[in-house]
Specification:
Blueprint (H helix, E strand, L loop, with lengths): L1 H11 L6 H35 L6 H22 L7 H20 L13 H10 L2 H18 L19 H51 L1
Helix pairs in contact: 2-3, 2-4, 2-7, 3-4, 4-6, 5-6, 5-7
């Protein structure tokens, strides 16, 4: 009777739910939560720069409310990570979707597609490609593309600082200042994206490779 019981438990075990893959899912979610923390900190820094240094007038209430919602999701994710229940692909995908929607709201209230940080939509897509099956990656591509497309038409225009919104007498100096501000924002967005991809995504891809190697060794042993 003993061998039969063991065999029944083995075949009833869902694929991909062994101890190692469960740990991998938790590591992915933990890194995603860390990335969300970095994003919230970066968003706070950019808003502080816009207010204290550039003197920009932004719709602060919806921007701060969105950041507060992100902080709440980060708190709930921390509580979720204290559970031993495995993290599924759908759960990781849902977490990424929340981050995409939060970014879309922030961009909507700060210039839409004219905001130089629009390129940050690439980050969740890269993370999905590194950690999730093909179907989820295409789903993330569709979501980010849809958000980007809508933000090309629907958004709250940025109100330029007073020093940059003077009359026509400012001429080329005014246009050059606006252009330099936009270029700086594009540079900062690239630096953030490059740093996040270099650290978090490489770590996630490494965890996936380790999981695959462990599964391959398990098959060889059996």
């Amino acid at each position: 009777h003993e061998p039969r019981t063991t065999y029944a438990v083995y075949v009833a075990k869902p694929p991909g739910m062994n101890v190692f893959s469960a740990q991998t899912g938790h590591r992915h979610l933990r890194r995603l939560a860390a990335l969300r923390g970095v994003a919230i900190g970066a968003q706070g820094g950019v808003l502080a720069l816009a207010w204290f240094v550039l003197g920009m007038h932004l719709p602060w209430l919806p921007l701060l409310a969105t950041m507060a919602a992100q902080a709440l999701v980060a708190l709930l994710t921390g509580l979720r990570l204290s559970s031993a229940r495995p993290v599924s692909n759908m759960e990781l995908f849902a977490q990424l979707c929340l981050d995409v929607l939060a970014l879309a709201v922030l961009l909507y209230f700060s210039g839409g597609s004219t905001n130089p940080f629009i390129s940050l939509f690439l980050l969740p897509l890269v993370i999905a490609a590194a950690t999730l099956p093909r179907g989820y990656t295409w789903g993330m591509a569709a979501l980010t593309t849809a958000c980007y497309t809508l933000l090309m038409k629907f958004y709250v225009p940025l109100k330029l600082p007073h020093a940059l919104s003077g009359g026509m007498e400012m001429g080329n100096m005014r246009r050059e200042s606006i252009f330099n501000l936009h270029i700086f924002g594009m540079w900062l967005g690239f630096v953030l994206s490059a740093g996040i991809i270099a650290y978090f995504v490489v770590k996630m891809a490494q965890a996936v490779r380790e999981r695959d190697e462990s599964l391959a060794r398990s098959r060889e042993e059996t």
